[in-house]
User: Fold Nitric oxide synthase-interacting protein zinc-finger domain-containing protein from Capitella teleta.
Amino acid sequence: MTRHGKNCTAGTVYTYHERSKDSKSSGYGTKDVRLGKDSIKEFDCCCLSLQPCRNPVVTQDGFLYDKQAILEYIVHKKKEIARKQKEFEKQKHKHSKEDKEIQALAQETLLKNFMAKQGVGSKVEAASTSGSISNMAEGKNKQLPAFWLPTLTPEAKGTVLKKPDEKVCCPMSGKAIKLKDLIDVRFTLIKDGDKRSLITKDARYVCPVTNDVLGNSVPCVVLRTSGHVVTQECVDKILSKDMVDPMNGKPLTAKDIIPLQRGATGFSGAGVDLKAKKAGPALMTA
Assistant:
């Protein structure tokens, strides 16, 4: 009997299509999906809120943020660092107290051993402790109070906190970020006569020099001296000759030209991995 379709189960071979179908329906195997245009952040959107920026600022690495969002992030991180620092100091004080108790116990043990060797006070101590029914005598107060709790077993170790880093890091690049290092960005609105809301438009801004429409498919840079956003082509063909900011006439250096990080178009790579993968257990077959 020949196979007339992919769903035929009369064959003796477990085909690749059947294996893929079973893995997908059962949840086994690595799943991957290609991201579309709607899944890619626009070049003028905040890296935190993923919405068009009202007061855009850019870091030295070219990541764009809304000023309110990045300020709230910095304040939140500083409070979190202060809380972690307080917990670390509390743990440090607790460890120092435990070290002092261990040293005092060691000295007490040495003193008891010395007194026992000298035969002084042994009879008095034996008479005082013999016949005691207290559960706190003879060092029982140092024993395990509840052996059935996992956190109080001798093998259980407490969580050791590390000293927190006092620097607030950028959520995208992971480098230290400061408020004074943020650069205000100025976008030039497109003049097309469209009175719709800015968030509903596909074309929102243009280059102030060449009047080219800006988007994810157009490499853009931020001029540090004025904060205006121009295209990379404008820098290569026009600004690289004189190295002068066309908006205010100030001289430019290589550090003053900050490439703006952007998303892909959804149809081409543009340096961004457009495939999302989620690893899972493999489907084992005999």
About this structure: The first strand starts at residue 31 and ends at 34. Helices lie at 16-26, 67-118, 122-129, 232-242. The radius of gyration is 34 Å. Residues 78-152 form one domain.
